[in-house]
Amino acid sequence: xxxxxxxxxxxxxxxxxxxxxxxxxxxxxxxxxxxxxxxxxxxxxxxxxxxxxxxxxxxxxxxxxxxxxxxxxxxxxxxxxxxxxxxxxxxxxxxxxxxxxxxxxxxxxxxxxxxxxxxxxxxxxxxxxxxxxxxxxxxxxxxxxxxxxxxxxx
Amino acid sequence: xxxxxxxxxxxxxxxxxxxxxxxxxxxxxxxxxxxxxxxxxxxxxxxxxxxxxxxxxxxxxxxxxxxxxxxxxxxxxxxxxxxxxxxxxxxxxxxxxxxxxxxxxxxxxxxxxxxxxxxxxxxxxxxxxxxxxxxxxxxxxxxxxxxxxxxxxx
Amino acid sequence: xxxxxxxxxxxxxxxxxxxxxxxxxxxxxxxxxxxxxxxxxxxxxxxxxxxxxxxxxxxxxxxxxxxxxxxxxxxxxxxxxxxxxxxxxxxxxxxxxxxxxxxxxxxxxxxxxxxxxxxxxxxxxxxxxxxxxxxxxxxxxxxxxxxxxxxxxx
Lengths: 154, 154, 154
Hints:
Three copies of one chain form a homotrimer. By secondary structure, chain A is an alpha+beta fold.
């Protein structure tokens, strides 16, 4: 339980596993060691602290906190499905969507909130993967960030 | 041909394989058993029954029907490329984009039209994978939904 | 160095490896032979020749040139990370986002600029994979195109 200890040391608590927003799995294993986590939103324990769009309703700092929430939700999903977070070999790729006004260009800074957290928890070797940060005009339920993750297990 | 029988039982017919909209393959195998299907649109047999954006031009119900069309097109592509739809082990991940007005927040409901169909045809075990449902301001040719799929073969 | 020779023959030069726009890897290997390249932008050697949105600021032809730039940046990243571009078995999937006005529908034509270049350099067998071309209201730094790539090595 090294990773969970690290999460606690950093001052975070894993939230309740979010409910799927429709007909899909939160998490799907494939091949021998790969896992896809479905697009995770920003509500923690069912509570939407951050809603709206970057460049309009939220600051970059708020967007970064929202992006962190996506990761905490993803880790809660992972813990339920792969038992131990110590079993992760690497976060291969993160695809992050940031709800943005037409003239907000700092999606990468917002998504850094997510990838910095992964890096802080898992270290560079495991935590830092490939990434795309994409703007969009709107996300489900008016959340500001949605992140899907591909990872590889040990 | 169990899956094709099931499709017929559900009252659906596989459409003609849609033409690629440019320079790419409709379908690409990789590794030993993985397949990526290119972003599938909503026109069936070349006919655009659904065009426009959710929250502006189309109801959620129409969006769900459009999302179903994406899946039917994907299955037509798959049948051509992997011979038998019975050969699918699992639909690993679906990435679905929904053309949306700036204040339309029900992308997951729209995409349920697609994932419910997969579930009805293939059952939970095979048909229900990970998923991300993302809003966007516009899609190619003004289609309302575009879906790409990662799957694993037996 | 067959592929690099081919790039030169076609009149292109690999640019400097672009700097990551935040906390992530430009490129991540996983499994035995898979590689994900992070979302690549359109600036070449740090210079933004193309900025803005299709349907508003840029013509389709300019968008195609911008899309080509994404590929050249991706190949620069690849060369650094996998040593020889001759070691690529196939470009499995390309996910391309095109910053678009609400009524611009020709994302596939724009992205053809990217996939035609891959096809010209690597040939059909290696260069032509699955693809999704998606519109979006805005991309990081106001770039017109962002492309992430999944590929398989020999």
